[in-house]
Automatic annotation (TrEMBL):
Any GO molecular function: oxidoreductase activity
EC number in record: 1.-.-.-
Alphabetized InterPro entries for the sequence: NAD(P)-bd_dom_sf, Sc_DH/Rdtase_CS, SDR_fam
Family: Belongs to the short-chain dehydrogenases/reductases (SDR) family.
Keywords recorded for this protein, A-Z: Oxidoreductase
Source taxon at top rank: Bacteria
Keyword Oxidoreductase attributed: yes
Protein name (database record): SDR family oxidoreductase
Catalytic EC class: oxidoreductase
Keyword check for 4Fe-4S: no
Signal peptide: none
């Protein structure tokens, strides 16, 4: 059996790390793209031999074609997980044009650019699976994250547009919208803000935070033949948060 090959952007921490680990643990060779050499190499060492560090800043759009050309020399890319992203918490009227553009650049333009290049490769190699990562910020309104919300809403629309256009080539495109997941960063933020934590848990029907592995499991489903008749979907992995009251 041929080993599948994946790319996970921002796979050196948080949800990206859990997703990369799930793929690697199931025998999928996974390129983990991260900006920080030490952090990315440490993550790959922790995950194991199937994890390969790729040090690259995805904001450098013009060199993404060369990056993908290099990564596909040995084997085609079967799975792409667009996980890398940044957030910005600011009052609406305080957000500058530069602030807004910076978030859109990282969260939307780089996702488009890397997807376009990987799709070229997938089209000549009998298809593949692309998994985009959205957010609860695209499911309902959250204050003080206007740029982030805009980028994630666009990711969900782009998922549907890509899915329709690429289906004839055997390329499936799906999206995961994580709810409130227990990462080091989110746990610290919520523990320091009991009111917000109560609000989060109060509108999450299941009544507890998700684990990073929950996102990895969903991504693995989309990455494999178990989801062979699924494309263009947005799956909230959120304990019911997006429909909670």
């Amino acid at each position: 059996m041929n080993t599948k090959t994946a790319i996970v952007t921002g796979g050196n921490s948080g949800l990206g790390f859990s997703t990369a680990k799930k793929l690697c643990d199931n025998g999928i060779k996974t390129y983990i793209i991260g900006r920080t050499q030490e952090k990315t190499e440490a993550a790959c060492k922790e995950i194991g031999p199937n994890a390969i560090p790729v040090i690259y800043d995805l904001n450098d759009l013009k060199n993404i074609p060369a990056l993908i050309a290099e990564l596909t020399k040995e084997a085609p890319i079967d799975i792409l997980v667009n996980n890398a992203g940044i957030n910005l918490k600011k009052e609406f009227t305080e957000v500058t044009d530069e602030d807004f553009l910076s978030v859109i650049h990282t969260n939307l333009l780089s996702v488009f650019a890397i997807s376009r290049e990987v799709v070229k490769n997938m089209k000549t190699n009998n298809g593949g699976s692309i998994i985009n990562i959205s957010s609860m910020a695209s499911q309902y309104g959250i204050p003080k994250v206007i740029a982030y919300s805009s980028s994630k809403g666009a990711i969900e629309s782009m998922t549907r547009a890509m899915a329709v256009e690429l289906a004839p080539f055997g390329i499936r495109v799906n999206c995961i919208a994580p709810g409130f997941i227990k990462t080091k960063m989110s746990a610290a933020a919520l523990d320091n803000d009991p009111e917000r934590k109560n609000k989060v848990l109060g509108r999450t029907p299941m009544g507890f935070l998700g684990e990073p592995e929950d996102i990895g499991d969903a991504a693995y489903f989309f990455a494999t033949a178990e989801s062979k008749y699924v494309t263009g979907t947005v799956l909230p992995v959120d304990g019911g948060n997006s429909i909670g009251f």
